[in-house]
Amino acid sequence: MAAAAHLGSHEHEDHHHHGPPEANRSSRVDPATLGMMLFIISEIMVFGAFFTAYFFIRVVGGAEWPAEGDHLPKLIAGFNTAILVSSSFTLHYAQEAIRKDNRRGLQLGMLVTFLLGATFLFIQINEYVHVGFSPQDHAQGTIFYGLTGLHGAHVTIGLVLLLFVVIRSFRGHYSSQSHLGMEVPGIYWHFVDVMWIVVYLTVYII
User: Fold this and answer.
1) Mind telling me which Pfam families this protein's record contains (predicted)?
2) Could you say which of 3.40.50.300, 3.90.25.10, 1.20.120.80, 3.30.230.10 is the CATH number of the domain covering 32-61+74-205?
3) Measured between alpha carbons, how far is residue 70 from residues 122, 130, 137 in Å?
């Protein structure tokens, strides 16, 4: 009798259930973090396409890099690299601060990170103005502007994300128990920094 009642209750629950079953949450990775990681993987593929064109020109085509008569500002780019790498350290400082409920440390770290990123982008744009060649001049110019411009676009997106985090940090939206909203943009910003190191070493140094 009890079994029949249980069966009837189960059938009643099934009757009222609509739509697909709930998603399996067996993964320990937060959905937002997982989504960002998958997005970064797709972006690595995009950069890979540009690097393939770059190596095709230099290795397969044997073209001079940069093109004859052109010079890349290695010193300025190196200084700019140091600025961007520093922003990863200030971001890490901000993340550690909020884990300890240090709101002032979070605000300072995020603000400095944003300003360093904005400085990097400003110097990059200034470099375009004074570099002395344009994308349409030769294949090397196309690849140079393509790779550095693609990275610059990612920096711009990162700065927008950082700005939101800065604003929210000054509004007191984060705590040691709730800071995923800054962790996910932080993953993206670290990716942008690492990718620039690869671009710098490949385009300016090698």
Assistant:
1) COX3 (PF00510)
2) 1.20.120.80
3) 22, 11, 11
Tokens of 115: 């300003």
36-55 pLDDT tens trace: 999 999 999 999 999 999 99
- Classify residue 54 as exposed, middle or buried by CB count within 10 Å of its CB (0-12, 13-18, 19+): buried
pLDDT in tens, 117-156: 999 999 999 999 999 999 999 999 999 999 999 999 999 9
Q: Contact, 52 vs 200, CB < 8 A?
A: no
Q: Which of 200, 177, 204 is nearest to 81 (CA)?
A: 200
Q: What is the CA radius of gyration of the chain?
A: 24
